[in-house]
Amino acid sequence: MENTIIAEGKTTNEAIENGLKILKVPKNRVEIKVLENEDKRSFFSILAPRVVKVEMTVKEVQEGRKEKIEKKQEEIVKKEIELSKEEQEKAKQNVENFLQDFVKKLPEGTAYKVETTTSYINVDINSKDLGYLIGHRGETLYAMQNVLSAIAGKGIENRVRVILDIEGYKAKREKTLEELAEKVAKTVIRTRKPIKLEPMQAYERKIIHSKLQQNNKVETTSVGEEPYRRIVVSLKSKY
Q1: Ordered domains of the chain (ranges, CATH)
Q2: Residue 48 has pLDDT above 70, yes or no
Q3: What is the Cα–Cα distance from 82 to 77, expressed in whole angstroms?
């Protein structure tokens, strides 16, 4: 699909509609520049067929491409990661060795559970007052998750992915994000104006995308660069 096209019509609106059909994107995703306005016609052109030309350029094309690349990379990672039994045990032992010393610095009674799969290592840490390990919007939790992934992969050829949860934060956050998605969608439908959400982790953006995927009136796109990448919820063109 071309990024910029010239569309024609008997009126400006008709030219824009013809261009949108070619680009196959909603109107709020394009920049429009009128090249020939139907109101600016000379005496000599009065008998000629009325034609309006508009230049239409798709906005955020790079973001769209980046999103497709990210999805392909995620698919490749999922296909590549296939941990053997030996690698699972090794990764689990690496993580447990670290956690045994780590929990000694946490409140008394802190417990952890490590489970393995062929794709990732699941780690749950539970206790009271561990909010400082979660951080604002889970920032500390995700940073620790990255650290655990590096520890788990020590001495293992394949990349080891660790999924960490603390005090059931992710389940609570998922519910909050799903409720937010529904609320924002209703506002977009009512006001007919797009809403840009705050920057989120890729995991959290995926929850918003998934929640609104079945909504036939709104659509979601990701814009910006990490770590400030965020979701925009907008009305679908047919509405």
Answers
A1: 4-59 (no CATH), 78-167 (3.30.300.20), 172-235 (3.30.1370.50)
A2: no
A3: 10
